[in-house]
Amino acid sequence: MATAVWAAARLLRGSAVLCARPRFGSPAHRRFSSGATYPNIPLSSPLPGVPKPIFATVDGQEKFETKVTTLDNGLRVASQNKFGQFCTVGILINSGSRYEAKYLSGIAHSLEKLAFSSTARFDSKDEILLTLEKHGGICDCQTSRDTTMYAVSADSKGLDTVVDLLADVVLHPRLTDEEIEMTRMAVQFELEDLNMRPDPEPLLTEMIHEAAFRENTVGLHRFCPVENIAKIDREVLHSYLKNYYTPDRMVLAGVGVEHEHLVECARKYLVGAEPAWGAPGTVDVDRSVAQYTGGIIKVERDMSNVSLGPTPIPELTHIMVGLESCSFLEDDFIPFAVLNMMMGGGGSFSAGGPGKGMFSRLYLNVLNRHHWMYNATSYHHSYEDTGLLCIHASADPRQVREMVEIITKEFILMGRTVDLVELERAKTQLMSMLMMNLESRPVIFEDVGRQVLATHSRKLPHELCTLIRNVKPEDIKRVASKMLRGKPAVAALGDLTDLPTYEHIQAALSSRNGHLPRSYRLFR
């Protein structure tokens, strides 16, 4: 026993004394087990050879401003400071399906699938991914109707490598025959998946745009039509890229980077670089302004076997009704955003709880009162020259007529008296959603890039919150009344036997109460 105690005491004498404090006097300095390396260094002193830490400081001055620099070739460089180890950097381009009037529809969709493939410097996508992995990076490309976005998130120390890679991906893609063939297969698969998935919202969004802006700008196909898949080759792509991938139509945006460093990288890799499709000559850009036409797009389809299994989704008919709103550049954009939030909605099986929108109009007036409706959701799509506010609803095919009338009534009620409590709730929820989304670095990046691309500047979150707070009931009533004077756009998918005619839907939206005209049948 004595031997064991002696051995333990000897062991303790050789180990670190972590918090030795004498009975009297000042505390003793902390000793380390590897005492030879840092002998007797107190915790209040920095360790030698360790980089000096940089801490976030608050000096009373707001550091949220977005810095924008325009280079000699027209390229805009925008950055937003954000404390942290990682950054998100990317190139946003004024390019998308709305610019394909003179081309084959589906070019932007194909370019999205071809992104981050082989380039002049990288032989394959794998090489690009390995280069990014050295800086803990990931990459992505997304196209919409009016914007194409190439983005990378990586360690801030690898900024030089990231901008060099982005420049190579955007300006020097190889577009090999093998890559184009793989892209055709990927597009084909995506189109099949789009038509088979139980949630038809992406397909309905495509249809409502086609109905609202028939054969122009944002009404052109966002997804590549099946008949165009085999026709899109390198020559077609280069013809499009030569006109739309020009520096004056690009923004290099970064979040979590020093602005001067980003500008330096842009000058190094994006100024004076000749793209793979040759030096830009006479540029032929489509500057068409969106023309709202209204109309209806119907797709008859058997939806009874969309989701098979032990608990299959019942057969539903989906309807989307929309009206022209406004551009995101107009002052009325904020009242429309508040109106959309006030309508809210969702699925009949949405979970409750704070912030879920259970007090929005489409829940209180529609889903809570009509148990047979499976979905009622409001959407607001806005572009630089137009916008579209629409409501998507779904129900059993036998109740389509009643469902359409419920939607038209809700549209009519938008232009009536607005309750102050519901307005304040919608405004608070919109501000909450805005601030919550802007906690995410990739969302800040997209917000910075899109705003600078459209307006050459950026409205900060607190400015947007001030605009939201200033929305009054008469603003909601004014924008809704103006919207209701236009023709509706309608998209319908599923069993459409009982779907009212377009003329009847238009008449209901022009009436005082939203009721559909009575339809008389000689034979039942």
From TrEMBL:
GO BP, one annotated term: protein processing
Tagged with keyword Transmembrane: no
Entry coiled-coil feature ranges: none
Q: Which molecular-function annotation in GO is an example for this chain? A: metal ion binding
Record-annotated Peptidase M16 N-terminal domain positions: 76-225
- Which residue ranges does the record assign to the Peptidase M16 C-terminal domain? 231-430
One CC-aspect GO term: mitochondrial matrix
Q: Where in the cell is it found?
A: Mitochondrion inner membrane; Mitochondrion matrix
What InterPro entries does UniProt report for this protein, alphabetically?
Metalloenz_LuxS/M16 (IPR011249), MPP/UQCRC_Complex (IPR050361), Pept_M16_N (IPR011765), Peptidase_M16_C (IPR007863)
Q: Which Pfam families match?
A: Peptidase_M16 (PF00675), Peptidase_M16_C (PF05193)
What are the alphabetically sorted keywords of the record? Membrane, Mitochondrion, Mitochondrion inner membrane, Transit peptide
- Does the keyword Mitochondrion belong to this entry? yes
Where this protein primarily resides, as one coarse class?
mitochondrion
What does the annotation say about its assembly with partners? Heterodimer of PMPCA (alpha) and PMPCB (beta) subunits, forming the mitochondrial processing protease (MPP) in which PMPCA is involved in substrate recognition and binding and PMPCB is the catalytic subunit.
Q: Which PANTHER family match?
A: METALLOPROTEASE, MITOCHONDRIAL-PROCESSING PEPTIDASE SUBUNIT ALPHA
**Family indicated by similarity:** Belongs to the peptidase M16 family.
The function of this protein is: Substrate recognition and binding subunit of the essential mitochondrial processing protease (MPP), which cleaves the mitochondrial sequence off newly imported precursors proteins.
The name of this protein is: Mitochondrial-processing peptidase subunit alpha
Report the source organism: Mus musculus
